[in-house]
Design brief:
Elements (H helix, E strand, L loop, with lengths): L1 E5 L4 H11 L3 E6 L10 E4 L1 H11 L2 H6 L7 E4 L5 E5 L1 H5 L2 E4 H12 L4 E4 L3 E6 L4 E5 L5 E3 L1 E4 L6 H7 L6 E13 L9 E6 L2 E8 L4 E9 L10 H11 L7 H5 L8 E9 L5 E2 L2 E3 L2 H4 L7 H18 L4 H23 L2 H5 L4 H14 L4 H11 L16 H8 L8 E2 L5 E2 L3
Parallel strand pairs: 1-2, 1-11, 2-7, 4-13, 11-18
Antiparallel strand pairs: 3-6, 4-5, 8-9, 9-10, 12-15, 12-16, 13-14, 14-15, 17-18, 19-20
Helix pairs in contact: 1-5, 1-10, 2-10, 10-11
């Protein structure tokens, strides 16, 4: 089959890996000019994550690029420890920078799938035989299936299901992440300082070569255009002005940060993630801005979606309902974890801030530390993986069969079916 995937971050390339292994012809379209570097650290935890990474053959490579960060210290205004959360709480069994993981997945699939950067889908028209897709830059074409793996603000979801206001639920908090010099000379451990309604954390990168700064704040009535990066930076600087500890020198690096990300902390709520020949994967269908183990969720669900397509011999009418049923409990459990991110980083009142500190002091004391680890992995293991049909072809063989000229319009086959040329 010809499959069009929108999004080349984590979910899209993960699905491309499995689909090309099953012999399908895959095109991945990405709005950015290339694989996006940088980003926050993401982690994998629990037997389910490890099993899928092992099946993909990338677990060792991920470990070679792991962050090796230490505990997260919650500190007071003087920088003194209130408590320390173990590395497994924030970083799971293995943690890696999002940009490094994206590069690993791209390198794994670039010879089997066709990547089209600096482009985006503009319309999707479904017929009995396929989906006709048009693009901002490329020639239109026919595809058997379309998958939206394009994040919280999914373009495919908008085109297929409607405006995101129907599905994206705002938590009342915003988050900003930027790369900065390691002014605090951190080696492995991270720091989190919170005041009512705002919290700032710092983690070292590359063994202390630089640092990632994460700012979480109660949004209030803040509104900003997602395309206005400078406006977002001004908003963050204003919200954290006058904050104690080392906040001022940390924010001095915000304006010229080589990497910057800002968004609301939100969760996607949908009754169904498929419609006709279109399916949503990862953050596009059931993700959260942060804290919902979205990376592990995307990688596991990509395995499930491709497996159900294989088990149904390509019949989306069978595969898509099976995919939804298989992951529903899993996605719900992960999203429940994500709901606590804002209140953890930036409790809105002094009372709730003191309460958070007391709770985590208890949880990190002695025998309860094991319970804390168990709580963080419970959601990640709330799915039993099926043994799907074995991939029929190696990725390189699939690429050789699928190698066609770029952007050639589709033509109807002799048997009346519609075949796409990517």
């Amino acid at each position: 089959m010809k499959v069009l995937i929108s999004g080349a971050s984590i979910a899209g390339p993960s699905l491309a890996y499995w689909l090309t292994r099953y012999g399908h012809e895959v095109t991945v379209v990405e709005r950015a000019a290339g694989i996006r570097p940088g980003g926050q650290a993401v982690d994998f935890r629990g037997r389910v994550h490890m099993e899928v990474l092992t099946k993909m053959g990338i677990l060792d490579e991920i470990r070679r690029h792991r962050t090796e960060n230490g505990p997260l210290h919650l500190i007071d205004e003087r920088g003194e420890d209130l408590l320390a959360l173990p590395a497994s709480f924030t970083g799971g069994q293995v943690e890696i920078q999002r940009g490094d993981l994206a590069r690993i997945l791209y390198d794994l699939t670039k010879d089997a799938a066709r990547y089209v950067f600096d482009d985006s889908i503009t319309s999707l028209q479904e017929t009995a035989d396929g989906v006709y897709a048009t693009f901002e830059r490329s020639a239109p074409g026919w595809f058997d299936l379309v998958v939206g793996a394009d994040g919280l603000h999914s373009n495919v979801r908008r085109l297929t299901f409607g405006d995101e206001s129907q599905f994206v639920r705002d938590s009342g908090y915003n988050v900003a992440i930027f790369n900065a010099p390691n002014r605090l000379r951190l080696e492995r451990d991270g720091l989190l300082y919170s005041e009512p309604g705002r919290g700032i954390s710092v983690y070292p990168l590359g063994g202390g070569a630089s640092a990632n700064v994460m700012c979480v704040y109660a949004a209030g009535d803040a509104t900003v255009d997602r395309r206005d990066i400078e406006g977002q930076k001004r908003l963050v600087a204003g919200r954290f002005a006058g904050m104690g500890w080392h906040t001022r020198p940390l924010l001095a690096d915000l304006a010229g940060a080589p990497y910057f990300y800002h968004d609301s902390i939100s969760i996607v709520r949908m009754k169904s993630w498929t419609k006709g020949r279109v399916a949503l994967l990862g953050d596009a269908g059931y993700g959260a801005t942060c804290g919902g183990m979205g990376t592990g969720l995307a990688v596991v669900c990509a395995y499930v979606l491709a497996g159900e397509i294989a088990a149904a011999d390509g019949d989306h009418r069978v595969a898509f309902p099976a995919y939804e049923q298989a992951i529903r409990k899993f996605t719900k459990a992960c999203q429940q974890v994500a709901g606590g991110v804002g209140p953890f980083f930036a409790p809105k009142t002094a009372r709730s801030l003191r309460r958070r500190t007391r709770i985590y002091k208890v949880l990190t004391a002695g025998p309860l530390l094991r319970l804390l680890d168990k709580l963080t992995t419970k959601a990640a293991t709330s799915i039993e993986l099926k043994d799907y049909p074995a991939p029929v072809r190696h990725a390189a063989a699939a690429h050789a069969a699928a190698h066609v000229p770029a952007h050639v319009p589709a033509h109807g086959a002799d048997d009346g079916t519609v075949r796409a040329r990517a």
